[in-house]
Specification:
Layout (H helix, E strand, L loop, with lengths): L3 H20 L28 E7 L18 E7 L4 E9 L3 H16 L1 H8 L4 E10 L5 E10 L4 E12 L2 E10 L7 H13 L3
Amino acid sequence: MRTTRTIRTALLTAAVAGLAATALPTAPAAAAPAAPKFLSAGQWPASLTPWAAGPVHKGLPEDGSVCTAGTTPAKGTRHRDFRTELDTGARQTITVAPTAAKAKALAAELRTALATCLDRLKEQEPGLEGVSRYHGRVNVEEGAHVYSIDTSYPEVGSTDIGLHSVGRDGRTVTVLEWGQLGDLDGAPLKGFKKTTGTAVAKLH
């Protein structure tokens, strides 16, 4: 027959064992992947006045992007605007796709949107004239591609130049937009290509 002392000892042993089990350290949860990094203000091509960087916002910009509106999904997307004190502005948009294959497809769609942008703008705005050019590939990660769109309204004498690029690193796609009054001859194309390479390289 078990004595009261034996029963108490058995209960105490079980309680200690249960406490020890709950005190065992659990394996740490896998850390979430770091969010892709944006350009800083000083990484854009030099301007006559310093660049200022706005905050990073989730989703797509409210005012849209002239050439790529309707192409980039809001889910997984963040954006950041940049400006100078003169008529020069820029934007970086970053999208993390569910898979590398979907990111590759998105980058291809964005390239098509940039290549056909001027034709679409001319359809929407009678009287608009311009020239669109492809300026080649930047060899960084899965690659980046640079475009320019030079537009003018002869009736009012205004001219605008926009530089655009699309780059990808794995599941992450980034789009850069830079614009100012003037034409391609006054645009920092070489510096923009360097900025594009920097943007893609620092994503991850």
